[in-house]
Amino acid sequence: MKKEKTVIFLEGKRLYLRPVDLSDLEEFQRFANDPDVRQYLLNVLPISKMHEENWIKKTMERNPNDVTFAVVLKKDNKLLGCMSLGDIDYINGFATTGSMLGAKEEWNKGYAQEAKMLILEYAFLTLNLRKVCSAAFYENKGSIKHNLKCGYKIEGTLKRHYYRDGKYHDQVLLSVFKRDWLRLKKQN
Ligand SMILES: CC(C)(COP(=O)(O)OP(=O)(O)OC[C@H]1O[C@@H](n2cnc3c(N)ncnc32)[C@H](O)[C@@H]1OP(=O)(O)O)[C@@H](O)C(=O)NCCC(=O)NCCS
Fold first, then answer.
1. Which residue's C-alpha comes closest to atom 48 of ligand 1?
2. What is the DSSP code (8-state) at residue 106?
3. Does pLDDT of 90 surpass 70?
4. Element spanning 10, H or E
5. Whole-angstrom Cα distance, residue 130 to residue 178?
6. Is it the case that residue 2 has pLDDT exceeding 90?
7. What CATH code is carried by the domain that includes residue 161?
8. Domain total for the chain?
9. pLDDT tens digits for 127-185?
């Protein structure tokens, strides 16, 4: 793909974030059904092309309370997955992030951390939010670690909250305040 045709909304060192597009449909459907990817996600039903297409169309509606980005590698425009800033509450100044980087061959390279930092910058310095939350299965070390590296702190745990693979799992609640994120950003 030629550089001038690339749609970029937020740009980092190795990644850029852009709106999700219908041309992402096949890959997103593959990611969302992959047992390794959905292991710690809340969806437990198979995802059809029609369902995925409806989800993409919904993200394309430009809802100011729910913003979803495709996460893409700059070097070759490879789609890694998506990240969202959802349940945006402009009165109380908070929102919740969600991550699904379905290209599992690219895990553990710091891409979630880089994308999350871009989304936090957007949340704090563009949308003027003051707190961003996240939640993860206790066992989802990748999710918890990349959030901690972006300045999130653990606020608490919901005990035996989600049923999966024959047992109940704790859910870890995390959040990052703008002032702490600004301090971390300055250090880096
Ligand atoms: C969770 C997820 C977003 C992490 O993406 P990622 O690009 O691998 O994360 P990063 O590489 O930025 O992770 C940051 C740190 O966590 C570490 N990490 C990532 N996955 C890990 C794992 N499974 N176990 C232990 N550490 C892990 C990385 O090595 C890195 O640490 P380092 O900088 O000290 O090396 C990705 O695995 C994913 O989308 N999984 C499927 C969907 C999902 O579970 N989403 C989260 C729902 S709450």
1. 136
2. G
3. yes
4. strand 10-11
5. 5
6. no
7. 3.40.630.30
8. 1
9. 999 999 999 999 999 999 999 999 999 999 999 999 999 999 999 999 999 999 999 99
Residue 122 contacts by C-beta under 8 Å, 6 or more apart in sequence?
Answer: 10, 85
Calculate the average pLDDT of the chain.
Answer: 96
Measuring from each residue's beta carbon to the nearest atom of ligand 1, which residues come in under 6 Å?
37, 40-41, 81, 99-101, 107-113, 136, 140-143, 145-146, 149
Distance of alpha carbon 135 from alpha carbon 170, whole angstroms: 10
What is the pTM (predicted TM-score) of this model?
A: 0.96
Beta bridge partners of 147: none
Compute the distance from residue 74 Cα to the ligand 1 centre, in Å: 19
**Torsion angle in degrees (nearest 10) through CA of 104, 110, 114, 115:** 10
Tell me the pLDDT band of 5, cut-offs 50, 70 and 90. Answer: confident
Ligand 1 atom with the shortest distance to the CA of 134 = 48
Domain that holds residue 61: 3-187
What pairs with residue 164 in β-bridges? 167
The minimum-distance atom of ligand 1 relative to the CA of 102 is 39
Token pair in block for residue 39: 């292991």
